[in-house]
Design goal:
The protein has a single domain, classed as Glycerol uptake facilitator protein. Helices cover 63% and strands 0% of the residues. α4 packs across α9 and α7 packs antiparallel against α8. The two termini are 28 Å apart.
Amino acid sequence: MAVAESWTKKYLAEVLGTFLLVFLGDSFVAFAVAGANGTGFLAGLLGAGFFWGFAVILAIYAAGAVSGAHLNPAVTLALAWRRGFPWSKVPGYIGSQLVGAFIAAVGVSFVWNGIIVAYENANHIVRGETSGVTSGLIFWANWPHPGLVGYAGHPALKGGADYLTQDPWWRGAGTEIIITAILVICILGIVEDRMPSAANLAPIAIGFVVAALVGLFAPIEMASLNPARDLGPRIWGLFIGYGSNAIPGQNFNLLITTGMPLIGGPLGAWIYDFFIHQHLPAPVGPDTAPVTETVRARA
């Protein structure tokens, strides 16, 4: 029996999928930062990459059959510009992703708050002061990475140069654009319908892409890759005392971790189409109508 298309169902699937992604990913970060009596960073960046990748895999499997599992405003914008996703539905998808990420942050607080507070007390961290950024990174991305590079009011870590000298804004912004573009390039290649592929393995392949990007580039600006994963928890941060550490973030880092993926995603889609998609063989079959190169590039 055919099921009528319902955009409400798609929006709800985006809420659920983004919730799973952010709840599982940030739960790992909560343990990595505050676990084992607050010693912090026990699992390392490779562990972070693995668990964020695993979260992506599960979220796509959960929501993909209904909504396509965008789970990321940068992906939604890219698909609207280059793949014909309805622009009228973009606000609904992005809003759903933000809601899912916000609920996930609430869930992380519910589950992990005791451990997080113990870590903050042991390390004299006050959420609304400059030191609050070191526990805020449990919930959202930060540029620069406060635990590896430094933060406002804190001496350079491990005797290095000042944190903004090590990681100036243009390096953080450029890195976020590049890695989000790589993410979208890989997603479009993995789900390319004109290439032989095992569709059920696409979530696993995409998860490996995210794992690699997070594991490699988190030291620069924590590899946000996803404006909803960043902004939704920041909004929750306003309710639990982080103040300006949440929005706009130290040095207005919201512009990098939320804003730059919105450039990188569509840029990656254009790059993929220019170098790969338009050069693939056109679909063939008895019902296939001739198409122009312009249409093929947007197919």
